[in-house]
Design a protein that fits this description.
Blueprint (H helix, E strand, L loop, with lengths): L2 E4 L15 E4 L30 E3 L8 E3 L10 E5 L2 E4 L9 H9 L8 E4 L9 E7 L12 E5 L6 H15 L3 E4 L7 H8 L4 H7 L3 H16 L4 E6 L2 H23 L14 H19 L2 E6 L13 E7 L3 H6 L22 H11 L8 E4 L3
Parallel strand pairs: 1-14, 9-10, 9-11, 11-12, 12-13, 13-14
Antiparallel strand pairs: 2-5, 3-4, 5-6, 7-8, 8-10
Helix pairs in contact: 5-6, 6-7
Length: about 375
């Protein structure tokens, strides 16, 4: 099994950008009119209820040659923005805000179509709720590669808004629309780690796989596979356990469907249960076909809290683990991240980190092989 070591790179948040920060006030009367028509507003300026508007403002200051859509009715005019050397971030934008490196990429690529942030269709309130996360470019237009259906399964101990912010950050890094499946669990990791030590892998997985989000992921994956389409999944922390359980259910369901399909409803063909040898051969063929179907499923886990041996056959699995991540050490048997400096919950951090974003870019491009473990440096 190949293991790649990746440097931690820049800090997890652009708010820590060492470039000197400037604050500029957007003035309504100074805002020029668009020569190309209405620009879609950027949600981080005034919340997810932000609406498109014809007016736009020009932010002046270091690295800010960009026009941003505004909604005068929402009070965006006069808002304060933080401006960095590589780009800008709307104050209070959270993990889904514009990122300096994204704006640099947009500049290099001619702006249009390069994701710099993302918006959500809503906020989940209970486990299993699903929300669409859509990236946008510097002009506020939907951006992304139009790739396979992609699901993000959030980790534990995240509110609905926190999970949305995580999804925004990941969707921006991936450059693709994602469907967030909300985990909704609350887990005291310290106690969970201690209690999980003597338990079998399957029991630990079940503990972190509540029914509602598991069924939601299962249904989404089956819908794609039944349509003959590939599907990608990104799972954070305990979301990996949900994803693993859902995919095991998908594998079993496909095998059952394949088995029944091998017995056409005709008098000359034996039906299930009539001939043990025929049943045995049909079952073997059914599982073999199910494994082939599961090859259309790609999974990227970030600090996955599930044993690597638990995943069903056929799944293209790439795992990311940070050195010293105690959750991975205890709950993901076979991936030990202790580099001699001890492990802690403090290293269980992935979303919004530049080293993780870099891995996501490579994973999207298919640069990792199935079964590969990507080891990240400590924060």
């Amino acid at each position: 099994m190949a293991v790649e070591s990746v440097s931690s790179g820049s800090s997890p948040s652009v708010q820590n950008n060492p470039e000197p920060e400037k604050k500029v006030e957007a003035q309504n009367e100074a805002a020029p009119k668009s020569e190309t028509g209405a620009l879609q507003a950027l949600p981080e300026v005034a919340g997810d209820s932000f609406q498109p508007a014809k007016d736009f403002m020009k932010l002046s200051g270091e690295g800010s040659r960009t026009a941003v859509g505004v909604d005068t009715a929402a009070g965006a005019i006069g808002a304060t923005f933080k401006v960095f050397g590589g780009g800008l971030v709307a104050a209070g934008g959270g993990q889904g805000a514009l990122r300096a490196n994204s704006l640099e990429a947009a500049s290099d690529a001619g702006d249009a179509g390069v994701p710099v942030g993302a918006t959500a269709s809503g906020t989940p309130s209970k486990p299993g709720d699903q929300v669409t996360i859509t990236p946008y470019d510097i002009y506020g237009n939907p951006a992304g590669d139009g790739g396979p259906k992609t699901l993000y399964v959030s980790g534990v101990n995240a509110s609905g808004s926190d999970a949305v912010d995580q999804g925004k950050s990941l969707a921006t890094a991936l450059g693709r629309e994602m469907t967030l499946t909300y985990n909704g669990q609350s887990v005291e990791w310290g106690q969970a780690v201690l209690s999980a030590l003597p338990l079998p892998a399957g029991v630990k997985r079940d503990m972190l796989s509540p029914e509602a989000p598991t069924r939601a992921v299962e249904a989404s994956v089956l819908e794609q596979l039944h349509a003959g389409k590939p599907v990608d999944l990104v799972a954070l922390s305990g979301g990996a356990a949900i994803t693993c359980t859902a995919l095991k259910n998908v594998h079993e369901q496909l095998a059952k469907e394949n088995f029944l399909a091998s017995f056409p409803p005709a008098p000359e063909h034996p039906q299930p249960g009539e001939n043990p040898w025929v049943d045995s051969q049909a079952s073997a063929d059914a599982y073999k076909k199910a494994e082939e179907q599961m090859q259309s499923v790609r999974v990227l886990t970030l600090g996955g809290a599930v044993d690597k041996g638990e995943w069903p056959p056929g799944v293209n699995l790439v795992q990311v683990a940070r050195k010293g991540d105690q959750v991975v050490d205890v709950l993901n048997h076979g991936i030990y991240t202790d580099d001699g400096k001890g492990s802690s919950l403090g290293q269980h951090t992935y979303v919004g980190c530049q080293d993780v974003d870099d891995v996501i870019t490579k994973w999207k491009a298919g640069e990792y092989s199935s079964g590969q473990v990507i080891t990240l440096e400590r924060l």
